[in-house]
Each structure stands twice: as structure tokens, then as C-alpha cells.
Amino acid sequence: MMTNYETYRLNFEKEVQPLIKEMEAYAEKQFIPIMDRIGIETFISLLTIQKPTTLLEIGSAIGYSAIRLAQADSQLHIATIERDEERHAKAVHYIERAKLNDRISLFKDDALTLDTTSLPFACFDACFIDAAKGQYKRFFEKYEPLVKTGGIIYCDNMFMHGLVFLEDQEVPKRSRTMIRNLKAFTKWIMDNPEYETSLLPVGDGILIARKN
């Protein structure tokens, strides 16, 4: 008997691949940041281990990661938030084509001002933050109360293409505040005793914080 992941890989190669390739090509052409292939495959593997049934995503973009995750696990229900109108519309389009409307709830709103009572679940097994990097701490503080004890918060792009490893004066001026905030958030969560936190050097850096 095949595992859920093996079934996902078989379906991905036979049926899912054309849509995913189309989304990847669109994101590249329009300069829309989505998880790279190593990052998304690693994330899928992490969720295969955790086995969440509910996940909250901050930053839908065009729906790429939500679709990939939902395709990988038929038991997973996702609520995802995107404030950009054009990207939200594209995410709606792709989610409909992927026939995942029953398991992906898409919200067009600013995650920092969204009324959380409008979300489909009061608590989530996991949260995935992949939005404005300079606001990670604010996103984390707002949504961590919605994550169950023992749940996990994942954050992508922790390395920001290597910028976090540079000295402040080496970072382009337009990015300095964002990188300072990202570095401060990383130190804060790594030192936070309420979470068991690790930082994986895969993709552009994935942070994993398990709620004690």
C-alpha cells in the first residue's frame, strides 16, 4: 500500500505537474516570489512528519504553496491570507483550476488588521508565515495564539538571499530596515523559551518554531 506522500508524488507527476509548471513560469515572468522547489519539497516533508489537519498561511501570493501543500495531503485544510488584489485574484483562479476550493479558504485582507474571528478555525495545527519579512515578529505575535500547544509555526525566506549574513553597511539601503527587523525577529524567537526553534539551511532558510 502506498503512503500519502507516494500517492502525492504519483499524482503530481501524472496530473498536477502541468498546472504547477504554469504557476512557476507565471511567477518567474511577473517577478512574484514563491517558494523554490527545494524549499517547498522540504516543507512538504516537514508537514508529512507533523501531519497537521489545519494550517494558516500568511501570504498567499498566487496560491502556489497552498496548492502544493493541499495536493500533498488530502486531509489538510488551509486558510490563507493575501492583501494584494491582483495576486489574490490569480490565487482564486489557480485554486479553482486545482479543484481545491473545498480545502483552501482564501482571504483578501491585510493579515495585520484581519479580524481573526472570520477564519474558518479557532485554532490551527500549523502556521506558515511567508509575507513581508520586516513584519515577521508582528505576524508571529498576532497569530501564535491561534496555534495549538504542540503546534508549529514555519517561516520562509529567513536568509533573504544571503542579505542576513552581511554587515549592516553592506546591505542595500532600501533593504536595511527589513533585514534589521528580520535579524531581530530571528534572535527573539531563537531565545524565546516558549518555543523550541531551529533554522534549516534549505531553500532560502526555513525557521521551525514548535509551541511548548
Structure description:
- With 212 residues, this protein is of the alpha/beta class.
- It has one domain: Vaccinia Virus protein VP39 (Rossmann fold).
- Helix content is 40%, strand content 20%.
- The protein is built from six helices and seven strands, in the order H-H-E-H-E-H-E-E-H-E-H-E-E.
- It has helices at residues 4-29, 37-50, 64-72, 85-97, 136-143, 176-190; strands spanning 54-58, 77-82, 104-108, 124-129, 147-155, 195-200, 206-211.
- The protein has a seven-stranded mixed beta sheet with strand order 3-2-1-4-5-7-6, with helices on both faces.
- Strand 6 (195-200) and strand 7 form a beta hairpin.
- Helix 1 packs antiparallel against helix 3 (64-72).
- The radius of gyration is 17 Å and the shape is globular.
- The model has no long low-confidence stretch (mean pLDDT 92).
Task: Please outline the helices and strands.
Blueprint: H1 4-29, H2 37-50, E1 54-58, H3 64-72, E2 77-82, H4 85-97, E3 104-108, E4 124-129, H5 136-143, E5 147-155, H6 176-190, E6 195-200, E7 206-211
Parallel strand pairs: 1-2, 1-4, 2-3, 4-5
Antiparallel strand pairs: 5-7, 6-7
